[in-house]
Amino acid sequence: MKPQIALQLWSIQDACKDNFYEALKEVKRSGYDGVEFAGYHGRSAAEVKSYLEELGLRVAASHLSFEALQNDLETTLAFEKEIGNSRIVIPYATFETLEAWQAFIAEMEEIAKKAAADGFEFYYHNHANEFTEIPGFDILHDMVQRTKHINLEVDLYWLADSGVDAFPWLEAHKDRIGLFHMKDMQDSPRESTEIGSGVLPMKEYVQVAKRLDIPWLIVEQEEFQNYPPLEATAIDCQELRAMVDEIYS
């Protein structure tokens, strides 16, 4: 089955702040099947749900702060359930010592266990620091070794940025990978750019997604060289859709 394509809404954060509903309408117009949330801009769960239903968008996942899950898990999960989300993602963490990382991982696993009991999948989203912060140590590898309920939303841009050989790493961790962040890389200066305009092997990543049966490919773009965010992310969707159609045909 072809994966669905979502936009991580951090990519168009200014448009979301200005008019959340209109921003979501543009996402739908651009051809996306769904969204990954990064905040709700003061809207209630009922409002968010009504926007999604009206526009025909699905929820791929939501990026949520670890603190929100720590401090008010029940309310946070109830909100997510109401908007139709079943995937929770911790978007970022950083610690100076291995001991601090491992304490965080243990606490995250306890939250993930409770979320799983309520019907949610639980993910951690990487940057490059998980591979570089503790010299010679792969925090994500340690994370999946130590836990049963934490899956990986792999950001392929940051995997490349960290210097990891992506394809053997993906193969070694395939049993815990459930989502891909699709983001192309401009080489100089090194920053994200439109899919198909950069140096990363995006088609090969889609081939891996097919092999791993990844249900959602989530577009994220954080820097914009040639187009404003709404135009750039429309190009991202068009380019990624063409790759998916070709590889899944």
From TrEMBL:
InterPro entries: IolE/XylAMocC-like (IPR050312), Xyl_isomerase-like_sf (IPR036237), Xyl_isomerase-like_TIM-brl (IPR013022). Pfam families: AP_endonuc_2 (PF01261). The keyword Isomerase applies. Keywords: Isomerase. It comes from the Bacteria. GO terms for molecular function: isomerase activity. Residues 25-237 form the Xylose isomerase-like TIM barrel domain. PANTHER family: HYDROXYPYRUVATE ISOMERASE (PTHR12110), INOSOSE DEHYDRATASE (PTHR12110:SF41). This is Sugar phosphate isomerase/epimerase.
